[in-house]
């Protein structure tokens, strides 16, 4: 029982640290949001195909990489238009 409570506190602390660091980050919301949205979509699709932890992790990572590529491509297009 104590172990579960300790894990909950560690998860809560990690979440608070992530939110604190994300709020002070100099990046734009789209720079984080687009890859994260693609990552969550990849996670959901991978879990639909194969509901395992490994499939979920791989789907999330592949989705994030794809989302980063989409963001970089849109950024290049904006730079070329200027």
What's this, in brief?
With 82 residues, the protein is mainly alpha-helical. The chain is 88% helix and 0% strand. It is built from three helices and no strands.
Describe this structure in words.
The chain has 82 residues and is mostly helical. The protein has one domain. The protein is 88% helix and 0% strand. The chain has 3 helices and no strands. It has helices at 2-23, 29-49, 53-81. The mean pLDDT is 78.
Question: Which descriptors apply to this entry?
Answer:
82 residues, mainly alpha, flat
Topology:
Blueprint: H1 2-23, H2 29-49, H3 53-81
Helix pairs in contact: 2-3
In percent terms, what proportion of residues is strand? under 5%
Which shape, going by the Cα principal axes?
A: flat
Q: Please outline the major beta sheet.
A: none
Helix and strand run:
HHH
Total tally of structural domains: 1
Number of helical stretches of at least 4 residues: 3
Radius of gyration: 17 Å
Mean pLDDT comes to 78
Helix content: over 70%
Low-confidence spans: pLDDT under 50, at least 5 residues? Answer: none
Structural class: mainly alpha
Number-wise, the strands total 0
Cα(first) to Cα(last) distance is 59 Å
Keywords: Membrane, Transmembrane, Transmembrane helix
């Amino acid at each position: 029982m104590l172990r579960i409570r300790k894990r909950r506190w560690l998860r809560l602390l990690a979440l608070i640290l992530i939110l604190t660091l994300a709020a002070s980050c100099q990046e734009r919301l789209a720079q984080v949001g687009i890859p994260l949205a693609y990552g969550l979509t990849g996670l959901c699709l991978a879990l639909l195909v194969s509901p395992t932890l490994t499939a979920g992790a791989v789907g999330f990572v592949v989705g994030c990489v794809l989302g980063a590529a989409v963001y970089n491509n849109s950024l290049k297009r904006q730079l070329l238009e200027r």
